[in-house]
Structures are given as C-alpha cells and as structure tokens.
Amino acid sequence: MSSKNLILRRIREALGESPEQPEIPRDYRRGEAPVDLDLLVERLIDYKAVVHRTSDISDTIKRIVGDGAVVVPPSLPDSWLRNVRFIRDDGLSQDQIAAADGVVTAAAVAVVETGTIVLDAGEDQGRRILSLLPDLHICVLRPDQVVASVPEAIARLTPGRPLTWISGPSATSDIELNRVEGVHGPRNLHIVLVEETA
Amino acid sequence: MSTHAPKGVGHLRGDEPFPAAAKVALANPQLRRNLQHATTTIRGKSGRVIAELPDWQELRSAGSALKAYTMANLPRLLEQLEERVTAAGGVVHWAADATEANRIVTDLVRQTGEQRVIKVKSMATQEIGLNEALEDAGITPVETDLAELIVQLGHDKPSHILVPAIHRNRSEIREIFLREMPGVDPELTDNPPDLAGAARRYLRETFLSTKVAVSGANFGIAETGTLAVVESEGNGRMCLTLPDTLITVMGIEKVVPAWQDLEVFLQLLPRASTGERMNPYTSMWTGVTPGDGPQSFHLVLLDNGRTAVLADEVGRQALHCIRCSACLNVCPVYERTGGHAYGSVYPGPIGAVLSPQLTGVEDNASLPYASSLCGACFDACPVKIDIPSILVHLRNQAPHPRSEKAAMAAAAYTMDRPKLYERAQRAAKLSKLLGKRGRGLPPPLNGWAASRDLPEPPAESFRDWWRGR
Whole-model pTM? Predict the structure, then answer.
C-alpha cells in the first residue's frame, strides 16, 4: 500500500463513519469599512517604516535615494523616476540586484488595521527577489489600494500569484522577545503614499 | 501496526521524566530570570494588540470551528491540496512517519547533487530530526532563523516553539557568537540590533550561494494549493525565493479549507504569537511561478502520529494548534522550568498534550502531569483548544503505579466505615512523626510529597470537638 493510501485509511478509521460537520460562525468583522489613511500612517510608523505623503512621486524618490542607483520592476512608470538613477529588471543577476542601493516598487494592496503592504509580483512590483536583496525598499502606494482590514485584503488578492505581505522593515523577536529591526530583509522601508491632487 | 510516531528517530521523547528534568532546570536561577523577563514582555505586548480588536472572541470561535471542520474533512482536503499543488507545477509526497519523511527529503536533496541546504525554522522538521538525517547523508543543514542559529551555534536544544533560544539572554547570545561564528567582529556588543546585524552578515553569502532550501508551512490552502510561511526576519523570504529547489515539510493537520479562511488565521496568529498586529513578512506561493522563485517545488505531507491523535475524540483538538506558543507564555509551570524539561520539541501546555498523543502516552507518561490545571492556556489559545480537559483525559490513560490503586481502595474502605475512619483520624496525629510537611514519609508515599506539602493535622477532630461540647 502506498503511504498516501495508508495515511488516508488511517484518517478515515480515526474519524469513523460520518464525522460531525461543524458550522463555521463568521461573526467577526467583514465587508467594507471606511479607510482611515491617518491610521495607516500611524501603524506604518509604529513598526518603523518611514512614510512620505506627497503628490510628487519622483521628487520624493529622488530625495530618498539621492545619487544612489535603484533597481525597478519592468513596468514601473518612468514618470516616477525623473532624475533618479535606475536599472530596470530585464532578467538582472542576483549580484546586480544585491549591489543596488535600493528598489522601487508599486504595491497591490495595503491594510490600515495592521500597517501592512502586500506585493503580488505584478509588472509594477516585479519578481520577489527585487524587493528582497537591496537594503532599501521604496514602495509607492495609491489611496485606492488601501483597505481597512485583513478580510478585505484577502478578498482583493489573487492566491495563484506569489504574495509577500510586508509589515515594517525586517525584524526579529528572538532576543528576549522584543522586536528589533534589521535582520535579513531590507532594513529601510519607505512608503510613498500618493496624495490625491484636486 | 502502531500509528504512533516511531521510536529512535526525531525529538518527541525526552531522556528522563519531566519531574527529574524540571528539578535540574529549577536549580538554574539565570534560566528562570531569562524566561520570566521574556514571557512577561510577550504577555504585555500580546495583550495590548489583542485588546485593539473588538471581535477577538468571534475570530477565536471561527478559528476553532474551521479547525474542527478541517479535521472532519481531512481526507478530501488533503487530496484537493495535492491536486492543486500538482496542477501548479509542484510535486506532492506522503510520509507515514519521521523515517519516511527524512528519506524523502534526503533523496530529493541528493538528486540535486548539492551538499548544503538552507532551512527556515520549522517545527515539523525538528520533530522528525531532519537535520541529523541530512548530516548522516553528508548534507549540511544551515538554520537561518536567528533563534535557531543561536541554538545551532550553541550546540543547544530549542526550548520554545516560537523563540527556540528564549532561555538565552543577550549577553549569553553575544558569547555564543564570539565563540562560534566564523569571521565575527571581536568588538561585538550585546546590543540586540548589533547581534541581529552580526547574523545578517554571517548568513548573507550562504543565502546567495545555496541551491536548495527546506521549509515548514503555517498553512496549506486546499482550495488553491497555496502554501504560506509566516516569519519576521526575511530569512524565510530568502529561502523561499533564492534557491532553485524548495522542499516544504507540512503536518497533515496544517491544511486549511479555503483561501478566504486565511482572513481568520492571519488575524489570530501574529497577535497571539509575537504580539504584533502583523508579523514583518508573510510569503505565499502556489506551486512554481516561471521566472520567479524556485523552479522545482516539493511538498511532503507528514503523518508521524497525527492520525493516532485524530483517533482520540477528546485529544484530537490538540491538532488544531497553529503553533503560536501563547500557551507557553502564560503557563506558570513553563515559566519556571523552561522548555528543555519537557523533553520534546513541543514544550509547554500544548506539548504536554501533543507529545504523549503523538508517541503513545506510555512514552511520555509524566507530561500530562506537568501542569497545575490552572486553565490560563485555554484562555490564551487563539483557537480555543481546551488543554486542561485533554490533560485530565490523558492522566486517566497514563499508567498508574499499583500502590496508588491500593491506597485509594484502602481510603475508600476506611471512609465507608465510621469507626475505622475515627481511628484513622486519631492516627493522623501521629503523622508528626513523619517530619515537617510530610518530608519523612516512607516510600512509595515520599514520591507524592516530593512536590507537595502534607497538611498539618488539626489538634482536635470535629468528632472529638462534638463529643466534648
């Protein structure tokens, strides 16, 4: 008998003829709630992200990276990168990505309640390695990408894509159970929250 | 054939019973200070972020019901998970026990021709002793989680589910790094950011040059074939993104029915575990994505005693555990003895109910007693596992000494007969001869008194007082 059949048989024997089917009570908060951008900023800062609220994306990115060179995903808008030195990812090597001074990506979704941004490897976010190896990650976020809660984020995302949920820069709780920033992922996380221009 | 986890492989059985191991731990005041500091810190953090959610109890109820539903439908959900992972370009393997899982992983690594693997912290691979199996095959496993690294460099054993090096404080960690970490800066301080920075420099080159990674999984979604790893440092992202081959070992109870169900667990786990609104990084992947991440993905589904746990109607809820470790952090016994005393990779209250059921209760007979039954673990559990009830249930199954049965029978006989009872009460006064608090009791009764105080008998019994009124 294969191990698969053995395990499935053991499970069926353990459960008996007709195991009870429990109802799942979903009485927790679900559905759309108003988005509080100020709270999002507060939560991001609480976990040591740097937040820029601006209507001038390229100027803000230029101020963060200075003369440094950043890697960017295939279809990040050129208009975000005026006066910024950048290398577009057309199959860059691991070493080229690691040597960059930073990375600029867009995002798929952000969650107010937890201060989280989610990347889904879309064309303006790139493959996962891009936002992993450089020590500085600049993420540009539009207000319409922001939702209030985790259930709303789950509803917006596509599970087949590689997803990375990011809440603050790389950190650890392994030394005396306190949060300490700066282990293997980017140690500097900047969120550029785009203000809607009237 | 027994469905329990086999002997001689993995880390579910200790070398000595809990009371003996606890005695050693209790004699170490530094250990107790470290544990008290860490568990007090985490209880405060966790309590604050849980209080932010108005629907915490509703989320707990949903999580609990989702787990019960999963267990009731386990065969269908596992086959669905296999089908979806396979459709997305992954390969699924089934391992009946630790020995088979170790062989599958070792063979997969051998097929790549690589001599080294990077590892994401995983309870399942610790449980089956995968590192030892790989080393026996000439393959070097490198633990990349900071706490696991501290344990590995310190030639030590993990003592907590979430923070395996919780028994070490910052100055002890500094000493381990200075002694064991090649190329470490001799001026390294014990400032936590400096210690984290040392780990970053030490592991960077290893991440970039290793072709095979081994991980566990927090969740495996049957509906979509998506796997999820919840972490903090980014070592998980490195292992899940950079290598050519990824091998994930997942207990069969970790399957989650639907994508939507993550909305419950992703709210429960970080707040109960590290006391954060959300952990820094969560990675989710479905099979293989061309041009992004490992191009070869293997999922190993592990039984190793889980089906034996499932067969016990009271005990099976131990399989609902999402490995947050909240029960450890609130347990008065764990806080004093630490994790090593439990002998298994699963310490604390959840370990005291999970380990004996995975191995068969006769192999971990003392663990159901490693509790005062205070119930704090039940209150803290984000999926509402009734740990105290399982502990009592397992105590009834554990082998009892014959002398205990004889003593209880004698007590029942005496209490049924008033004259005999009166004489026994008078005789109890003689117990002063047994020394203070019963420390002079003869064997086998001295075993009972080793961790309990015999109450002083009153000067006068109720019956004597009534008669003399």
Answer: 0.93
